[in-house]
TrEMBL record:
Entries under Pfam families matching the protein: TctC
Source species of the chain: Belnapia rosea
Keywords (A to Z) from UniProt: Receptor, Signal
Signal peptide interval: 1-26
Protein name: Tripartite-type tricarboxylate transporter, receptor component TctC
Record-linked InterPro entries: BUG, Bug_dom1
Amino acid sequence: MQRRPLLLAASGLALPFLALPRLARAQAVWPNRPVTILVPYVAGGPSDTLARATGGALQAALGQPVVVENRPGGNGAVAAGLAARAAPDGHTLFVGASGILTINPHILRNLSYDPMRDFAPLTIAISAPNMLVANPRFPPRDVPGLVAWLKANPNQASYGTSGIGSSEHLTMELFAQRTGTQLTHVPYGGGAAAVTDLVGGTTELSFLNISTVAAQVQAGALRALAVGSLTRHPLFPDVPTVDESGVAGFEGGSWHSFVAPRGTPEPVLEAVHAALVAALRQPETEARLTRIGFTVTATSRDAFATRLERELGEWREVVRSAGIVAG
């Protein structure tokens, strides 16, 4: 377990926040003591980066310590379970990655949390598409060519992911279902290992988060075939989407959110949401997150709740059709 307070001085960073009426109202009801942000993965990944970037801005604005606590394990289930059991008062927040909230419930047995029952959605903070990438020696150069090759060579191409049930795994399963193709899955213990073997030619292709493969694509170590968003990504404007490449409506990616324990009073939820959105929209926070390929979305609570319910249903069908079970 790693606990590190974000010891930032209440300097000029606080001024733009304190000028906002909504944030001033927020401070009237929350916080009245230090705030803990639970992160379900080790330090250095997207969830951790989000927590520290946002937490720093929150601390500067609100005048209370913000502690980022890394509690990895169980594909994110350890931290999620702790968050679900925390006091519902706004002083414990959880960085909920999309897979933890929308995929885990369908592939993991005996979960200690239920995303709809145990959490109050606050905001989808950041999102990023998965990018369809291939080893440069793999013959297909675009999505139509890939589909044709896969149909002519069923199960002859292998793809690596960060693990069973990850967003990369389910994105490729969705692609295979939509295109009528068959591939061999090679799960790794993280995205970095999957990238290493893909660059080395152990695997042929993968859908990996754009923030994970951006450097390799820019260096020419990997070939980008398409991105899994409905619009082209600003980091790679010349790379088409899967949708425009012939798989209509295809989307695959990940997002990272903030949730609070269910039962947190409505005025506190409103206060926390207002503070989080202001922190995410702070220029330094936004720049830090966009540099690594994420889009700061900072959604409303209602928009988040609607998307959570929809994606739970969508991934349930993908998992069922593919017969995926992690344990």
